[in-house]
Amino acid sequence: MGFFVRKEVLGARPALHGGLNYGRLAEEGVRPGDVTDFSVSTNPFPPHPDVAAAVAGAALARYPDSYCGELSAALADIHGVSPGSVLAVNGLAQAIFLCAFAFADRGRTVLTAPPTFGEYKNASELAGAVVAEIHAREGEGFALPAREIERMIETASPSVVWLCSPNNPTGLLPEREELNRLLALCRKSGTTLILDEAYINFGPPGSSALPLMGPNLVILRSMTKDYGLTGLRLGYILAPKETIGVLSSLQPPWSVNACAQAAGMAVLRRRGYYEAQWEDLRAAGRELASGLAAIGFSPLPSSGNFLLFRAGDVKALSEFLWERQILVRNCASFGLEGYVRVGVRTRGENACLLEALARYREGR
Question: How many CA atoms are closer than 13 Å to the CA of 218, on its beta-carbon side?
């Protein structure tokens, strides 16, 4: 190789995610809109009409506000924090990489608790950190191994602990007392606890760890999933002002484009519209869970807008569903061989999935 590459980049592989493979669609002559995509966990309901109008009215001929001042102020008002405690980002992928390069010190340990979102490990390793994994156990329902994490914090003083709440792909929420203990230990050891709440608005109201916000805690939030802005990429970070200042210094200028900022403001003005959708999705999720159990695919209890269940031969099931242009998430990339995750969609789409799964079970 005739040029220099950082050693962390050599051999790096991107984390695998759900979503459509547009190359495969083109090869098979399938239009994206013809696929019912259960492999992702996003709001399936239509956006408020104000969103399209806001995007259409965004100024395209000038640079957007690099600091997202209006959007940050609106988010701060909703959450009861100062605007300086909010950093708008280009989706949570950017938030994760900003946090990794700010806090995952080269050569030091960071902790993750698989099965969980793969970008935590990927970003930390690219930053040069050593990733230690404390696995949740299938026999314990994949509950957070909080006591083991506590012991590791006490003995290894990691630079970062990554947690997801509700956890992707299991849908489990850490208990508040667990978070209290972990945060206390992190503050004692100088560890940053990064809590990914991408799916928190789909969970039971009051589930957020925002009341715990203070030193050593960074909360990541998505707006692409709960507000259905996936194609625009939008999220934000909540943390003390000093922490936001550090992260802001790493963020490339104009990360959040004008259309995303305009859409973000539009959905926040119509928050009640989306709160009603989230409540409808919770009910649809309970119905889907009951339907899955009735045909022999009992899912784990979930506080997210997705359900994880053991499917056996995932390849055969996926191929059967793909013949009907239904896409589900093979969870082998999470280390969960034989498991499938499905996002909660509209009741009509959920019914189509259940019908297809029932036919699969019947051998048709």
Answer: 28
